[in-house]
Amino acid sequence: MGAASNELHRPSTGSRAFAALVCLAAWVVFALLLVELARRPFPWQFSRAWAPSLGLEFALRVDGLSALMLLLITGVGACVFTYAAGYLAHDPRRTRILAQLSLFLVAMVGCVSADNVLLLFLCWEATSLLSFLLVGTNYQDEDARKSAQQALFITGVGGLFLLAGLLLLAQLGGSHSLAVLLARGPELVSEPLFPYAFAALVIGCMTKSAQFPFHFWLPNAMAAPTPVSAYLHSATMVKLGVYLLARLHVGFGAWPGWALTLVPIGALTATWAMVLALRERDLKRILARSTVGALGTLFMLIGLPGEGAALATVAFLLAHALYKAPLFFVAGNVDHAVGTRIIDRLGGLRHALPFSAAAALLAGVSMAGVPLSFGYLAKDAIKAAKSGSDTLPWLLTVAQSNRVVAALSVAVAAVAAVRVFWKHPGVNEHCDAREGGAAMVLPPLALACAGIVFGLFPGLIEPLLVQAAGAMLPGGAGAQLTLGQGGSEVLAAATLALALGALAYFAWDPLHRLLERRLFDDRFALAGLYRAGLDGLPRLAAFCTRAVQHGRLPEYVALILALAIAPIAAAVWCADGVDLGPLPAPELAHAGAAALIAAGALSACFVTSRLLLLLASGLVGYGSAVLFLFSGAPDLAFTQFVVESVFVVVVASSLLAMRRVTHLRSVVEPRVRPLAAVLSLAFGAAIAALVLWVAAQPFDAATSEYFKSAALPQAHGRNVVNVVIVDFRGLDTLGESAVVLFSFLAALPLLQALRGARGRNAA
Amino acid sequence: MLALALALAVTCAAGAYLATSRDVLRAVIGLSLLGSAVNLVLLAAGRLGPSAPPILEEGRSAFGAVANPLPQALVLTAIVIGFALTCFALVLVLRLMQAARVDDTAQLRFAEPPAVDTVKPPEESDELAERTDGAAALRRRDEPC
């Protein structure tokens, strides 16, 4: 990935300075955090008014759990930045990736230290967005684009669930402060709406932490450059879901639904992910599957009741970050040196990459849970958690699935650490592979060594872990927790896991071939649904567009008519017994005008000749003019007469023009179109009913009276209609005149074209 | 009012019937009829009152029983605009018929050609132009002679 553009790009001074600055800043932040940890007791609090009118504040609160996450974010972050600076040294995108990683670090710090739920949500979404950008770093590659989109969709939709859950919780608890809400936890769980809030929160956490059935996005996110995968998709971002649930544990952990939900989800995810890991050949994807497995284990541990489970959660959280990030680094080193991550083509790299091999071995030892490593202590704590709670026997049965996970973890560790570096390759094709330099070697070594050092001297990290576990437990319980409780029983279990893992390691290739052809996960789980949905969405949009915008003019008109009829018909239907008032016999003049109009309209429908059609429509106009004349509207009558007379001229010239339209293929329509007739009659009836109903309503003449009384004194005009048009509403009239003018201007070129065509025809 | 309502019913129905026609010229006339009908609806909404026009005679400063001036003011401009619209539409339709040599709206589909793909919107292509003779005719017209 990074190796592709080697030798092509020499980093500029600015780029180098930026990389150095970012790394330095990360290390300084990490060091400052360590100093603060030693100096100040928890909780650290900070609060500023943000939007007081909404009751929002920029509130941060750091306790043991947050501090552990902060330590991971900044510590692993500093290693990742250093590693990225070396890994991407010859990559023109280095500055961009480092900038995005820095932003991501800030968002993560905000996420784990936020006390305000909305601040938490904002930072949470920021991490999703930055994950999208970082996964899509190789945006020229279609797979990378699709993976980035998938990661964004899944975590983004989950983010919406999270928002709903947080807001509902805040509504129930009457506060936006997480600490206040958790303190009220025991009251909140009895609220009828609490299960919905809980479900929304869990779904949000499940998408972020890639729990079944949302597990498929994480392996695909491996399209990101390796430093990004190491940081976002193993050590930090995907742990956000775990972090939030651990944070909520203190308030809601005692609720019966808690364990009932989380333990099965976690156990299923862990087991399934480890089985799927056997199907992969790409080293990074194998590691990603095992990351999903670890996240599932963490979900399960959070779900288990008891104080030991809290300690196991935080211990395993730390252990996983300390061994998985170095393994990713090593996978990146292998990729960088050899140009492939497919394990079939790798082997015997210990001579070419001795430091990477050492780091992989140390990390692998911790991952496998070999005694004296921190991974062993975590395993020990998990064992204690499972035996410490005897309230729900079936939960423990489910939790036994952890044995399979442990064994397969050993196999994955062996593949990443032993197979790649020690197994004899079939062909010796990697003899020119070299280590990438100190920046790429030291970070994995440092993290892997930390995993061993903490295993040898658990006292170094135990106080923080106990504080973190204490933050998950109500009432400051868990102060007496210690690591390394188990005796021979744990040792026996670890040995069993190692033996089973070794078996799985040696049977890796047959197992792979067995599972490779089973595509059930891709096709039938949510992954298939996601793909179908993504394909179906544009189809649905196209279908809707086509159903509405089909290009058939008569149907457009019909739809408009139907939509005009519907509300009138509904109103008539609902109104019972509308009093239309007395309907006096019409005056003779009105009746005559009405007859003229009706005759014109009817004949327009039935004539076939174009000339008669146009003249019949003119008859409607003349009828209207007569009606205006006898309704006290002489202005209208004269205007209508003039218009209709000019219309006759237009009609005559139109027909002359049309005579020259030769070879016209006229549409053949049936004389009577029943559907259109029914619709038209309904429309006519609706309008007539509307007019009658309006006329029966009491009349408010205020506006008319105002114009009548104001015409003479204000506008010095005696014809009220004229005064309204040219004076009171003069600006409107100007606009309307402009409409007439523009329609003439628009018709002009068309007329010229008509005439030009005529001239050409004559010639 | 009853006579007016009946005339309106007939005019609206006739206008709607013509507007749903596939013959583009009839559709235009249908719209024009609907425009006339709307003018009458406006007038009716202001009530058919006294038949004296709202014009103040010389020497008088107050009105007796006169017709409602408000709908008249509205309708007056509507008449002119409706006329301009009808004339423009007529010229447009004539030009269209002259160019495409067809007056069937089902074949005048330059703006919204029939779909060729299940998802993608249709593009103007030569193949499409062949199928809609109108577009080909338009193209022929634009060539210099």
Task: Please tell me about this protein's structure.
The complex is a heterodimer of chains A (763) and B (145). By secondary structure, chain A is an all-alpha fold. Helices cover 73% and strands 2% of the residues of chain A. Chain A has 32 helices and two strands. Chain A has helices spanning 13-39, 64-87, 94-113, 117-135, 142-173, 178-183, 185-188, 194-208, 217-220, 226-235, 240-252, 256-277, 283-303, 307-338, 354-368, 374-388, 393-399, 402-419, 438-456, 462-472, 488-506, 508-516, 520-524, 526-548, 553-574, 588-606, 610-629, 634-659, 674-696, 702-715, 720-728, 730-762, and strands at 44-51, 56-62. A two-stranded antiparallel ribbon of chain A has the order 1-2. Chain B is built from five helices and no strands. In chain B, 61% of the residues lie in helices and 0% in strands. Chain B starts with a helix and ends with a helix. Mean pLDDT of chain B is 81; it is low at 127-133. Chain B is elongated and about 70 Å long. By secondary structure, chain B is mainly α. Chain B has helices at 2-19, 24-45, 69-100, 126-131, 133-142. At the A-B interface, helix 24, helix 25, helix 26, helix 27 and helix 28 of A face helix 1, helix 2 and helix 3 of B.
Quaternary state of the chains: heterodimer
CATH class type of the domain at 7-49 and 67-113 in chain B: Mainly Alpha
Low-confidence stretches of chain A: 1-6
CA-atom Rg of chain B in angstroms: 23 Å
CATH topology of the domain at 7-49 and 67-113 in chain B: Helix Hairpins
Helix content percent band of chain A: over 70%
Q: Compute the number of helices of chain B.
A: 5
Query: Which sequence of SSEs, written as H and E, runs from N to C of chain B?
Result: HHHHH
The class by helix and strand makeup of chain A works out as mainly alpha
- Tell me about the largest β-sheet of chain A: 2 strands, antiparallel
Q: Largest sheet of chain B, described in full?
A: none
Number of strands of chain B: 0
Shape of chain A: elongated
Protein chain pair with the most extensive contact, residues per chain: A-B, 111 and 100 residues
State the shape of chain B: elongated
